[in-house]
Design brief:
The protein is an alpha+beta fold and 257 residues long. Helices cover 32% and strands 22% of the residues.
Amino acid sequence: MSRDSTTKILSVAFLLCLVCSVLVSAAAVGLSGIQERNKIQERRKNILQAAGLYQPGQPIDEQFRKIEARLVDLQEDAFSQAFDPTTFDSRSAARDPQTSHRIPGDEDPADIKTRSRYKVVYLVKDDTGSLQQLILPVHGKGLWSTMYGFLALDDDFTTINGFAFYEHGETPGLGGEIDNPAWKGQWPGKKIYGPGGEIRIDVLKGTVDRDAPDAVYRVDGLAGATLTARGVENLLHYWMGQDGYRPFLEKLQAQGV
């Protein structure tokens, strides 16, 4: 066969593509376990950070031992054993008609549309087994993306110990400021519910008057990112409301957990 023949050129190109495909597929399969492990570690790190427990340089697995993952059935407002909380994927469950819940438009301030019936929450306990913190996964629409985060509550289920997003596509320098440590540092100590049980937490358009009586319910807005800030407020109002975790939290409180 001539070195410059079309047949030889096509044969060499085909073999090259075949060899590259085999190598890429083998690498993907070989690295899938490592990638999955890294995803788990990153999620654990985000949970620890939301709870204010992360210690740089210390093994994440060691730090995570004080945290217990539990599955919650938001339809029954109770812990569930329907799935393994260490492997359950709420995003996949939200796409499955058997495990999802469609949210009516007038009850969906966070613009979620469909959510999983089940969520994995995280309990932080002290050496005596008493609950210190409850860490809840939350998500909702920002300006450009769905924002995913963790909200850490004190054992009174209304005081915020930490709040951080681990995935979003908001504009860097504007809505992306939800990652700014200074902005995240405002959340610890803020209250979600007022004395009458109503949701009071707000993200302002401007800055909080620190001397105002309602300052404990308010967080500074994001300059130039009103829609992102509104999205943060909306997702908190949804997840901490009656269609979110509120009935479950009330049951925990009644049980003295």
